[in-house]
Specification:
Number of strands: 0
Mean pLDDT: 84
Largest sheet: none
Protein name: Armadillo repeat-containing protein
Order of helices and strands: HHHHHHHHHH
Strand content: under 5%
Number of helices: 10
Helix content: over 70%
CATH architecture of the domain at 5-103: Alpha Horseshoe
Low-confidence stretches: none
InterPro entries: ARM-like (IPR011989), ARM-type_fold (IPR016024), ARMC7 (IPR042462)
CATH class of the domain at 5-103: Mainly Alpha
Organism: Solanum tuberosum
């Protein structure tokens, strides 16, 4: 369910942690994590937050979109899966999509088209067909799917 400032304030209460602070804590936990499982859980959490437009500004401010892109270069398929899911979610906003392209995210997305993980492929396919069709030449898409 999408939220807004008033609903968020009601849910947080006067003693709760504001959303941006909570997300900053997650960023710090990710940076300090030594366990792959912990990193997976945090990136999955970020991908869920990336679904709600209320969080878009916070995610940009905290460089979480860049973190999603970094996950696409990891050998850990779960990090790739959650990273591409987060990118797919945040790219509903044109500012976030522009940030992905400015940070050379298109080649990373194309590379993920050959992932053996079904959900990763589906998210990449969605990004290609819906959000970045004008950035990704058809021949790259065909080659990645064949591989």
């Amino acid at each position: 369910m999408f939220t807004n400032s008033q609903r968020q304030e009601e849910r947080t209460g006067k003693y709760g942690t504001p959303r941006v602070e909570y997300l900053q804590q997650l960023v710090t936990q990710f940076q300090n994590a030594s366990s792959e499982e912990t990193k997976e859980k945090i990136v999955a959490n970020f991908a869920n937050f990336a679904y709600d437009p209320y969080n878009f500004t916070f995610l940009r401010q905290l460089n979480v979109i860049e973190l999603f892109l970094d996950c696409l270069t990891e050998p850990n398929e779960k990090l790739v899966e959650f990273g591409i899911g987060g990118i797919c979610n945040v790219c509903a906003d044109p500012s976030n999509a522009a940030l992905v392209t400015q940070n050379d995210g298109i080649p990373l997305i194309v590379q993920c088209l050959s992932s053996p993980v079904r959900s990763t492929f589906i998210e990449c396919f969605d990004l290609h067909m819906v959000k970045f069709a004008h950035y990704i030449p058809r021949e790259h898409f065909k080659l990645a799917v064949v591989n």
